[in-house]
């Protein structure tokens, strides 16, 4: 079976690349993946499958039934949305949608899962159980398409015993795969702070309550929540990426607007962190004569890879790829809404190497120059098919 899957993955690689390039050329933002969803549904129908469309508005779900289809079900997930980034790559498949780009590899995830679906559908007479295919919208935007699809019953009727997902890894050479048991990715919360003071002429600071000065102290001061309040062994990040003051060289504004992110891998510390951030920001502003409004939008939970499932998947990947091509991953404090699935059922989220330094394919995700070595699309579909079939056979 392993060699058969490898051969099919190789023979369908050109199709997977063509699908990826179509999706890359026509990216759509979170929860706006209408054409993407239609493309996916059409490809599934061409295979002979009957997809369920409109799940969480733009999600697509399909079921591949083998022999004795109700005996065991395994789910496979890919996300479909793109990012609000202007693409800087000069390639034939460059984005044609201004200001929108597949800069996180979701085009790869979707085209890879379509390839996996084609392989498994062709082999459906050779395995027992069923494979549920989940093409998910809105991974990049709170509340996360995964949470919405779960609410709409994607993990029911039939219910999978486990779910697998893969993500491109621009830091891992193409041809290699990465796994990590247990805690892997962080919870993600969005911070919105509005610092209010009293603006006026920059030459008369004694007549003002300077919100820019207050905001600068808040940004610096909040870092001690991570360095002095968090347990050193508990990974956590607090970063601010947007500050808007809208003053001038001699104009102090009335308000300063700040946006940031708070990430961790411990729910108890997460809630404590929210309280400390709010108390400190408001207290510092008040002490300096101003006010600070704090809004914290709860995002995705931390992602935990089920240990036994991950060990089984890693062992299966070694059989498929060779031990020298399967690596252990470090903690990654990025967030992923695949974490919602990991809160409901056994889950394994692994990384697909896409880097090729010799060809200059080295840019990270969420950058205007992100791209992949498309040789990964000969590996990804077959590997996921193999992992799924091995998991169907498992008694775990």
Radius of gyration: 23 Å
CATH first level of the largest domain = Alpha Beta
Please name the CATH architecture of the largest domain: 3-Layer(aba) Sandwich
Q: Give the mean pLDDT.
A: 97
Major pleated sheet: 8 strands, mixed
- The amount of helix comes to 25-40%
What is the count of helical runs?
Answer: 10
Report the β-strand fraction as a percent range: 25-35%
Q: What structural class do you assign from the helix and strand content?
A: alpha/beta
Assign an overall shape. elongated
CATH fold-level topology of the largest domain = Aminopeptidase
Any overview of this molecule?
- There is one protein chain.
- The protein is α/β, with parallel strands linked by helices.
- α2 (13-25) crosses α10 (376-393).
- The protein contains ten helices and 16 strands.
- The chain folds into two domains: 2-184 and 302-393, Zn peptidases (Aminopeptidase); 187-297, 2-Layer Sandwich (Alpha-Beta Plaits).
- The strands form four sheets. It has an eight-stranded mixed sheet, with helices on both faces. Strands 10-12-8-13 form a four-stranded antiparallel sheet, with helices on one face. Strands 7-14 form a two-stranded antiparallel ribbon.
- α4 links the parallel β3 (73-79) and β4.
Concise account of the structure shown:
By secondary structure, the chain is α/β, with parallel strands linked by helices. The chain has 10 helices and 16 strands. α2 (13-25) runs antiparallel to α4, α2 packs across α10 and α6 packs antiparallel against α7.
